[in-house]
From TrEMBL:
<dbReference type="InterPro" id="IPR032508">
    <property type="entry name" value="FecR_C"/>
</dbReference>
<dbReference type="Pfam" id="PF16344">
    <property type="entry name" value="FecR_C"/>
</dbReference>
<dbReference type="InterPro" id="IPR012373">
    <property type="entry name" value="Ferrdict_sens_TM"/>
</dbReference>
<feature type="domain" description="FecR protein">
    <location>
        <begin position="189"/>
        <end position="284"/>
    </location>
</feature>
<feature type="domain" description="Protein FecR C-terminal">
    <location>
        <begin position="342"/>
        <end position="408"/>
    </location>
</feature>
<protein>
    <submittedName>
        <fullName>FecR family protein</fullName>
    </submittedName>
</protein>
<dbReference type="Pfam" id="PF04773">
    <property type="entry name" value="FecR"/>
</dbReference>
<dbReference type="InterPro" id="IPR006860">
    <property type="entry name" value="FecR"/>
</dbReference>
<dbReference type="GO" id="GO:0016989">
    <property type="term" value="F:sigma factor antagonist activity"/>
</dbReference>
Amino acid sequence: MQIPKEQIEQLWHKYLHNEATPAEVSTLLAYIDAAEGEQLDFVAEGLAGETPASKGFVGMDATQKAELVQQWQAMRMQQPAVVRQGNFAGWRKWAAAAALLVMASGAYLWMKRQHAGSQQVVTAAVKENIQPGQQGAILILADGRKVVLDSLGNAGVIATENGTKVLLENGKLSYNGANTTTGAMLFNTMQTPRGRQFQLTLPDGTRVWMNSGSQLRYPTAFAGRERLVELTGEAYFEVAQDAHIPFKVSIAGKAAVEVLGTAFNVSAYANELWRTTLLQGSVRVLDNYHAQTATVQNSVVLKPMQQAVVTAEYMPANLNKSITVYSNVNTDKILAWKNGLFNFDGLSLQEAMQQLERWYDIEVVYENGIPEIPFGGEISRNVSFDGLLKMLTEADLKFRVEQGRKLVIIK
């Protein structure tokens, strides 16, 4: 297929910046599939981010280039394949390009074993019977009744509390009634068990997306000087603006996030660091916060694209309890769960497995200690458990599946 290199380079650039038309994408894919000789070299350079428009030439040899293109073609055909080769500087550029190219046909995941000096990219296949998570939740009403929301669909009004109607429409919960109350406050609790996510709108209009393994307690109508909700687990908030009544998220009675109107994500699972990430607006993160007395030991105000990390209650008492703030965080990574993805970039094996445990409702056990294997890549949350096992197998992770939804990591 004879196409000037300059044109192919332009197609690469447009594709990686999501600017290519369907016709241009088809041209690029056809060129790659038909490449041979010098064209094969140029394709490999493009896959590795080595075109003249990129910075730095990593200098792969002919065998490495052929393996790289072969790997891409295997991914295009949805065939399991693994690349095992030495480190080279363009790896992450290639991984980004390959991820875009295979997004329509599968998922990718890589693990780098430091002791072996090798890297693997794998594709999803199918094998076991454990299913990925889905939309659903359990609503606990003020009188203690539990309503399983997974199968109700468009149920309409499912309860009325103090004149406020609790509505379930299009798989989302909302409240229709007075936003404030002068009588006794009634509270609802939303639970998303392992393998479930859910979206709801609070009585004040605040929208909340809840990740699996989470719980949110809130009033059916807000009263007083603040809008207080209590969270364990992870949720993304788009807060309805009310300059006179601040919105506050209490975390296990030990920390809190206070806002006026903004968009932010809070991750506060047990046995993990508590992280608050701000996307829009402004929030104040409070550490050693006591809900009953409203006393605060530490606090920090975040700007957009910043993340505050608070040491969780389970951590040893001798650790520094101050709040750590990180700037220019990758918000796409933080909100991957909300957008139907897992993003494992920069995570350890244990951190990645914690996410998988909650979504697939499994238990991960480490038979010989926790391997120190950096994770990377991005996969759909719709990937079957079978596909997940295939990824781990081809990435040379040794494991077995035992009865009781248990995944035992051997090494």
